[in-house]
Amino acid sequence: xxxxxxxxxxxxxxxxxxxxxxxxxxxxxxxxxxxxxxxxxxxxxxxxxxxxxxxxxxxxxxxxxxxxxxxxxxxxxxxxxxxxxxxxxxxxxxxxxxxxxxxxxxxxxxxxxxxxxxxxxxxxxxxxxxxxxxxxxxxxxxxxxxxxxxxxxxxxxxxxx
Length: 161
What we know:
Blueprint: E1 2-7, E2 14-19, H1 30-35, E3 38-46, H2 53-63, H3 67-78, E4 83-86, E5 91-95, E6 105-112, E7 119-123, E8 135-141, E9 145-150, E10 153-159
Antiparallel strand pairs: 1-2, 3-4, 3-10, 4-5, 5-6, 6-7, 7-8, 8-9, 9-10
Helix pairs in contact: 2-3
């Protein structure tokens, strides 16, 4: 069990979290070591090849013929300032910096979904997930860049300073 607190500089609000995790830490590998850092969202792009016909129709109805550019613009404005911290304890913390966020932070868990360490499971069920859903692809990972694809969205993150 561990407890930590932080103060959000943007609002001055102090948040305290307690996490109780009984599982063993994630084994240290070069990819795990690169992954377990603090990342800042740089931008979100849409992978058109992953957009279903139903979603494409919805986007065209909502945004018009330039739907991809407009949908990316909306998504980037919505998630601007997002920070994600991944730990070797299998936890992650998401800090939401945008004004209309329902929460200011969220804490839950993650683990590698395959031995190649190119996919992760993530949970919002706070250690009660059965790990059958919420798998995302780690498209790029190095000492400064993390790209994660979830469905049609590609999240471009950079190492936070």
